[in-house]
Design goal:
globular, two-stranded antiparallel sheet, 55% helix, 9% strand, 404 residues
C-alpha cells in the first residue's frame, strides 16, 4: 500500500512539473496574449487557444465546455495540415475529417487558461510535442470507407453528404436528403385523415397567390399543385427536385419515372401481395415513404403472434408470415420491426428486388425517428438485397455494403 502511494505521488509531482513547464513556455510566447482563436507553439509544446466574445446571454459553463472541444478539435486539424497535406484532398473528398482525427492520440494535454479578459472568454490547452501519436498506417482509403460506412449516421452532415456522394448510391443519398429537408418542410406522402372542406379552403388561398413557396407544404402537405409550381419556376438541382417530388410520389408515376432517369433502381410492379392503398403507395413511391406520425397505431397483440411465427424458422409457413405481416402493416405502417421482418421474408424467397424497396421504407422510418439502432438494422437489409441484386457494383460500393 505504501509503495502504491509513493508511485501515485511520483506521477502527481511529474504531472505538476509538466503543467508548470507548459505554463512558463506559454507566458514567454507573445501569441498567448492575442485575442484570436489560433494554434501556436513553443520549444516543447503546441498551444490551442479559443476566444469567444462575451454576449448578453453568456453562460460560462456552456461556453467553457464548447471551447474545450473546439480547442482540441482545432489542434487535431492543425496536426493533419502539418503532417498530411498530400492526403488532405482525399480526406476532404471522402468526408474523412472525423475518421482522421480519431487516429491522433494525445497524452498529457492540459487546460492552462480558462478566464475572462475584457469582453472575451479565453481557453488555452497545451499539448507536449513528444506525446502526440499518429496512426499513419490507417490513413488508407479502404479504412476510411469501412469506418464511414459504419458511422455515417453520426458524422457531421457535411462529411456524411460528401461520403454518400462518393459512394454513389443515389437511393440512399436521396433518403438522407429527404430526411434533412423534412426538418423544415413537411414532405409526408402518407397522411392521416384530411378534412376535404378545410383542404379546399387552404388550397384556394394558396392558388390565389402569385408566387408559390415550397414551405406551403407545411399548410397543405402532399399537394401536387404546390410542388409542380415550385419546381417549374425554380432552377433546382437533381436531388432537390426529387426531394420535393417525393412528397407527392403517391399521386402518379411522375416521381417513379424521374428516379429511374437518375439511375435509381426501380421496380414497376406490386411490392405487397394485397391490393391495399398502402401497396399502391409503396409501388408508386418505390420505398421512399414519409409517414405522418399522427397515423394511429392499432392497439392489439397481433404482432407478438406474427413475431413468434417469424422467429420459429419454419419455412413451410413463410407465405403465411408474409401475408400476416402485410395485413399488419396496412393498419400499422409505422412499425419498423414489421417492415424489417418483411424484407427478411422476401430475401428468403430470393425476391431481392422487392426486398430492396422494403429496405428503403425501413431506412426512411429509422431516419424519421432518428434511431441509430433501427438505421443499422435497415442498412443490413439494404446491403443484403443490394449485394444479391446489383451485379455492377464497384469495389468501393461492395466494401461499403460488406462493412455494415
Amino acid at each position: 500500500m505504501k509503495f502504491f502511494l509513493l508511485v501515485l505521488l511520483f506521477f502527481f509531482k511529474a504531472s505538476l512539473c509538466i503543467a508548470e513547464d507548459a505554463k512558463k513556455q506559454l507566458l514567454s510566447n507573445k501569441n498567448s496574449e492575442t485575442l484570436k482563436t489560433e494554434v501556436f507553439s513553443s520549444k516543447d509544446y503546441y498551444f490551442s487557444k479559443v476566444v469567444y466574445k462575451i454576449g448578453k446571454k453568456f453562460n460560462r459553463k456552456k461556453i467553457s465546455r464548447k471551447a474545450n472541444f473546439e480547442a482540441i478539435d482545432n489542434f487535431k486539424e492543425f496536426i493533419l495540415d502539418l503532417n498530411f497535406k498530400d492526403k488532405k484532398n482525399t480526406l476532404n473528398e471522402w468526408g474523412a475529417n472525423t475518421y482522421s482525427k480519431n487516429l491522433i492520440s494525445i497524452k498529457n494535454a492540459r487546460k492552462l487558461r480558462n478566464i475572462r479578459k475584457k469582453d472575451n472568454y479565453i481557453v488555452i490547452y497545451s499539448f507536449p510535442k513528444k506525446e502526440i501519436l499518429i496512426n499513419e498506417n490507417h490513413f488508407q482509403l479502404n479504412n476510411i470507407i469501412s469506418y464511414n460506412s459504419r458511422n455515417h449516421f453520426i458524422l457531421p452532415a457535411t462529411e456524411r453528404t460528401k461520403f454518400l456522394d462518393k459512394i454513389n448510391f443515389n437511393d440512399l443519398n436521396l433518403l438522407w436528403k429527404i430526411n434533412l429537408s423534412k426538418k423544415q418542410i413537411n414532405l409526408n406522402n402518407v397522411l392521416d385523415y384530411v378534412n376535404p372542406i378545410e383542404y379546399q379552403k387552404k388550397l384556394k388561398e394558396i392558388y390565389d397567390l402569385k408566387k408559390i413557396k415550397i414551405s406551403y407544404l407545411n399548410k397543405l402537405p402532399s399537394t401536387k399543385y404546390i410542388v409542380t409550381e415550385f419546381i417549374n419556376n425554380n432552377n433546382l438541382s437533381k436531388f432537390k427536385k426529387l426531394t420535393y417530388m417525393s412528397s407527392v410520389c403517391s399521386h402518379d408515376t411522375d416521381f417513379l419515372n424521374e428516379i429511374k432517369k437518375s439511375g435509381i433502381v426501380t421496380i414497376d410492379k406490386d411490392i405487397l401481395t394485397n391490393k391495399s392503398t398502402l401497396n399502391a403507395y409503396v409501388k408508386l413511391c418505390n420505398g421512399f415513404m414519409s409517414f405522418d406520425k399522427k397515423i394511429v397505431k392499432e392497439k392489439s397483440n397481433k404482432f407478438l403472434e406474427i413475431e413468434k411465427k417469424f422467429k420459429s424458422g419454419n419455412a413451410k409457413i413463410i407465405d403465411e408470415v408474409r401475408s400476416l405481416l402485410e395485413q399488419y402493416l396496412v393498419q400499422n405502417p409505422l412499425s419498423f420491426k414489421a417492415w424489417n421482418y418483411l424484407s427478411a421474408v422476401l430475401r428468403f424467397k430470393k425476391q431481392f428486388d422487392l426486398a430492396l424497396i422494403i429496405s428503403r421504407v425501413e431506412i426512411s422510418i429509422a431516419l424519421n425517428n432518428n434511431n441509430l439502432k433501427y438505421y443499422n438494422e435497415a442498412l443490413k437489409s439494404y446491403s443484403k438485397a443490394k449485394l444479391n441484386l446489383d451485379k455492377n457494383l464497384t469495389d468501393k460500393q461492395k466494401q461499403f455494403l460488406k462493412s455494415l
